[in-house]
């Protein structure tokens, strides 16, 4: 899938792009099924209680279609065009979100570039938890100026911070630069969100160090719940992109926990 010059300009300047109906209705149905199976497999008792956010990796055999999106050209080719270089697939996962997600970017470092594709398998609008983004907030100085406390800084509630709302139907996909500030308000206690994340394949010492630091944190989070970030199923996926990611992360000392 080739992006137009205008799409690349939009992403560069505003930090996100939307692809309506990127997944067909059949794919969306399969996504939804595998999402539930994958998420519930990581819950004691197999049922989300709606009390707190629940996260699960979807890089496992229970969700082969979802895991395979990482090397699907609609995702990886787009990621490489947006990053302007080779991409490394880092994570494919899902969440049952509970309540609001307050404003934040996903990275503290602007030394490396990364993109996150968001897939919401249920229809969402501004009042029931659709993703909101602050256009242009992925770049400094704007990125670093925005306050985590809008009440104190702007006398605005979290939900009143100026933003764009991604009203979506199942099958729609939004990709954003992970430095973009984002949030969601008004969702229920079982809002489903899936993501596919790619980092740039780093070619400078600063980007390499930032990615290694970020990956140490990622591995620590998996270790805390007694799991391995990249299990045997993910490592064995028979696809050239995939096998390059595994080799390259190993070279970067980012494939395993090394604390
Ligand atoms: O949908 C949401 O609640 C926001 C998700 C989010 O913060 C993220 O994907 O980083």
How would you characterize this protein structure?
The structure is a single chain. This protein starts with a helix and ends in an 8-residue tail after the last helix. The protein has 9 helices and 10 strands. The strands form 2 sheets. The protein has a 6-stranded antiparallel beta sheet with strand order 1-8-5-10-3-2. The chain has helices spanning 5-14, 25-41, 64-68, 73-83, 142-145, 150-154, 205-224, 232-236, 240-251, and strands at 16-19, 54-57, 87-97, 101-104, 114-119, 131-133, 164-165, 173-177, 182-184, 191-200. With 259 residues, the chain is of the alpha+beta class. 34% of the residues lie in helices and 20% in strands. It has one domain (5-203, 232-241): Jelly Rolls (Sandwich). Bound molecules: 2-oxoglutaric acid.
Q: How do the helices and strands line up, and which of them pair or pack?
A:
Layout: H1 5-14, E1 16-19, H2 25-41, E2 54-57, H3 64-68, H4 73-83, E3 87-97, E4 101-104, E5 114-119, E6 131-133, H5 142-145, H6 150-154, E7 164-165, E8 173-177, E9 182-184, E10 191-200, H7 205-224, H8 232-236, H9 240-251
Antiparallel strand pairs: 1-8, 2-3, 3-10, 4-9, 5-8, 5-10, 6-7, 6-9
The structure holds 2-oxoglutaric acid.
């Amino acid at each position: 899938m080739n992006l137009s010059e205008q799409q690349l300009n939009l992403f560069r300047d505003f930090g996100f792009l939307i692809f309506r109906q990127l997944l067909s209705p059949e794919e969306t149905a399969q996504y939804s099924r595998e999402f539930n199976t994958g998420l519930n497999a990581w819950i004691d008792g197999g049922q989300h209680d709606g009390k707190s956010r629940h996260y699960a990796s979807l890089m496992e055999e229970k969700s082969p279609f979802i895991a395979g999106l990482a090397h699907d050209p609609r995702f990886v080719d787009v990621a490489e065009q947006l990053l302007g270089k080779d991409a490394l697939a880092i994570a494919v996962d899902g969440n049952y979100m509970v309540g609001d997600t307050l404003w934040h970017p996903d990275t503290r470092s602007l030394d490396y570039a990364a993109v996150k594709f968001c897939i919401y398998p249920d229809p969402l609008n501004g009042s029931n938890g659709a993703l909101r983004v602050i256009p242009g907030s992925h770049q400094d100085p704007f990125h670093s100026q925005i306050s985590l406390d809008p009440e104190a800084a702007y006398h605005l509630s979290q939900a009143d911070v100026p933003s764009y709302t991604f009203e979506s139907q199942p099958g729609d996909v939004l990709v954003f630069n992970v430095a973009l500030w984002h949030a969601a308000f008004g969702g229920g206690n079982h809002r489903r969100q899936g993501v596919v994340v790619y980092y740039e394949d780093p070619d400078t010492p600063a980007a390499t160090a930032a990615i290694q630091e970020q990956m140490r944190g990622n591995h620590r989070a998996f270790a805390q719940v007694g799991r391995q970030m990249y299990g045997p199923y993910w490592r064995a996926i028979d696809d050239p992109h995939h096998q390059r990611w595994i080799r390259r992360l190993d070279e970067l000392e980012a494939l395993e926990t090394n604390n």
